[in-house]
Design goal:
Length: 283
C-alpha cells in the first residue's frame, strides 16, 4: 500500500464558530452594519457569495477556526470531531505553518495533549493546548498554526494479490494567536483602523492595505469597484504593523477616479463583519 502526499486544508473562517460552538456543516452569517451601505446590495451579495464559496471538507474537524491565548493564559481546550465515515489515527502539533513542517522540527512554544490519538467514526475528542512560554513580541500578536494530521483506518478487503492501494491522508491547519498584555486598544478596533489606497504602478492598478494595529487582519474576501467594473481578491491575512499590495489586473480605472472597497473581516469568534470604504486612485 502506498501513501499519497497529505491533502492540506486551512480551516475556512466563516460563521459563528466560537470557542464553545459545535461543528456543523454550515454556519449562519452575521453581517455587521449592512444598512450602512444598502445601496451596494448587489456588490455585497457577490462579496458574501465569494466568501462562502470555498468547498467544505470532511475530516477531523475543529470546533473553531482559531485559538486565542490572551495574556496570562497558559492552557486552552479544543474539541475536535471525526466527520469521516471511517475511523482515523490523528496527530496534533503546533508549528509556524510551513507546508512541509513536521512535529519534530517545530520550535513553537506549545504542547498539544494527546499528541497522537485514534478516533472512531463520529467521535469527539478534547485536546489540551498548553502554552509553554517563551520570548515573543510584546507589541503585537504572534501567529502559530495547529496541525491535525489524519490517516484513515480502512478495513482490509478482498483484493487480488497484485492489487495496489493508495492511502490518502489529510492535514488541517487552524490559526493560534498569542495576544500579549498592554496592547493600546482591543481587537474590535481593527476594522476602522485599516486603510485602503489605490494607485497605478507600471501601468496597472494596485490596492494597498495598511494594517497599523497590533492584530492580524484576517480577510475572507475583498471586492474593489472602479471604472464601472469590479474585481474580487482574497488577501488572506495582513500581519500587524505591515502593509500588503495586491494587483488589480481586471480593473483599468485612471488616476483621480473614485473607487469603493468592500471587505469582509473575520473577528475573534470566527464571525464575518462586512464594511466598505471609498478611496481616490492616486497617480
Amino acid at each position: 500500500m502506498g501513501a499519497a502526499p497529505p491533502c492540506r486544508v486551512r480551516a475556512h473562517e466563516s460563521g459563528p464558530r466560537g470557542r464553545h460552538a459545535r461543528a456543523r456543516a454550515w454556519w449562519p452569517l452575521r453581517v455587521a452594519r449592512l444598512a450602512h451601505f444598502a445601496q451596494c446590495t448587489l456588490a455585497l451579495t457577490a462579496l458574501l457569495a465569494a466568501a462562502l464559496s470555498l468547498p467544505a471538507h470532511a475530516g477531523v474537524t475543529p470546533e473553531t477556526s482559531r485559538v486565542i491565548f490572551p495574556a496570562g493564559e497558559t492552557e486552552q481546550s479544543l474539541q475536535v470531531f471525526n466527520a469521516n465515515p471511517y475511523p482515523v489515527l490523528a496527530q496534533a502539533w503546533i508549528d509556524d505553518g510551513r507546508i512541509d513542517g513536521v512535529p519534530q522540527e517545530s520550535s513553537a512554544p506549545f504542547v498539544v495533549l494527546p499528541p497522537i490519538f485514534r478516533m472512531a467514526k463520529g467521535d469527539q475528542r478534547s485536546l489540551r493546548i498548553i502554552h509553554a512560554g517563551g520570548q515573543l513580541p510584546s507589541d503585537r500578536e504572534s501567529l502559530f498554526w495547529l496541525n491535525l494530521y489524519e490517516i484513515p483506518s480502512l478495513p482490509k478487503q478482498q483484493q487480488p494479490a497484485n492489487a495496489q492501494a493508495v492511502t490518502v491522508t489529510m492535514r488541517t491547519q487552524i490559526k493560534v494567536f498569542v495576544r500579549p498584555a498592554g496592547l493600546p486598544y482591543g481587537s474590535r478596533e481593527l476594522p476602522k483602523r485599516l486603510t485602503f489606497s489605490l494607485a497605478r504602478a507600471a501601468g496597472k492598478l494596485t490596492l494597498r492595505i495598511r494594517n497599523p494595529t497590533p492584530y492580524y487582519a484576517s480577510f475572507s474576501a475583498v471586492l474593489v469597484k472602479a471604472g464601472g467594473h469590479s474585481q474580487q481578491i482574497t488577501p488572506d491575512m495582513v500581519a500587524p504593523l505591515s502593509t500588503s499590495t495586491l494587483a488589480l489586473e481586471q480593473l483599468d480605472a485612471q488616476a483621480g477616479e473614485r473607487a469603493e472597497v468592500l471587505f469582509s473581516l473575520i473577528d475573534d469568534d470566527g464571525i464575518q463583519a462586512v464594511d466598505s470604504v471609498k478611496a481616490e486612485i492616486a497617480p
